[in-house]
Amino acid sequence: MAPSAQSLPTSVSDEKYANVKWEELGFGFYRTDSMYVAKCKHGESFQEGKIVPYADLQISPCSAVLNYGQGLYEGLKAYRTEDGRIMLFRPDQNALRLQSGAHRLCMPCPSVDQFVSAVKQVVLANKKWIPPPGRGTLYLRSVLFGSGPILGSFPVSEYTFTMFACPVGRYHSDNAGLNLKIEDKFRRAFPGGTGGVKSITNYSPVWITVAEAKAQGFSDVLFLDAATGKNVEELYASNVFIVKGNVVSTPEISGTILPGITRKCIIELTRDFGYKVEERVVPVEDLLDAEEVFCSGTAAIVTTIASVTFKDKKTGFKTGDKTLAAKLFATLTDIQLGRVEDKNGWTVEIDRCHQCETLKL
Ligand code: COI
Fold this sequence. Notes:
By secondary structure, the protein is an alpha+beta fold. 22% of the residues lie in helices and 28% in strands. The protein has 8 helices and 16 strands.
């Protein structure tokens, strides 16, 4: 059972930082102060949840999530700007994607407003864990799952929506560019499956191949489509883009790749830069023939791909400061960190005073 809301931080104006070696931050679990928990009975709607001290949840061994994988997650980040503001990046988009996944997995879902309010509460309650500007971000992880017991028949009697926060640095540590293995045996998603939503079941089934690739010295894995095994889909947890001349191509959203929020921003930014962007089927041959390749995601941001290895043959691509990936990374992080004007209206500032009053933090 979630603990009570008693040991909440009493003041969000406390500017002190948590005792973290920010320069050593990677992308891993870090226990912070508080988390958000809301519950919902079958046939009802989610009501406002509560901020409680971070703790383990008590869960039925017969719960739908443990037995049948009924769960979805979302990840987004909070950023501290040089002038002391706290920003979120398109939290409504995570809320909408969670709704689409909840429909697919037969779960009720918090509304967009509830989701965004939960994000703000978790950020404010863990404010001292937001890294100093440019030294990392506060990653918000929400999980929606069937918490009620189910053995044979559904629906499930109870659902839980929870959100916690971890300070994070870069997801990939290969600064010079990723070296990918193109996986030609295991598949990540299949037509009609759940590849297009952020189901928790999309990830661990491919750990076997990611682990094998890492043991062989690769940074990550690029998956092919299950129907033909001829077209590129996405990496373990990021979308892929290829660049040739003035044309940028990325696999189309067809139900087997995740509709990434960073992917969507990159398509807009790249068009603004004057490139032609194609969302289409991308055969492996087109990728091997590209000048530049990069991947995108909330955790990955924009990361250059230095090489891919397909059937033991390695192909290299352009890397460095002059790449489109470098320009996109700089532009996106400048917007996220409030260093440049956000012409697209993507950032949401957490107004301290207003939120303090509203949330009684
Ligand atoms: C994210 O980018 O938020 C993801 O879901 C990737 C995860 C493996 C960290």
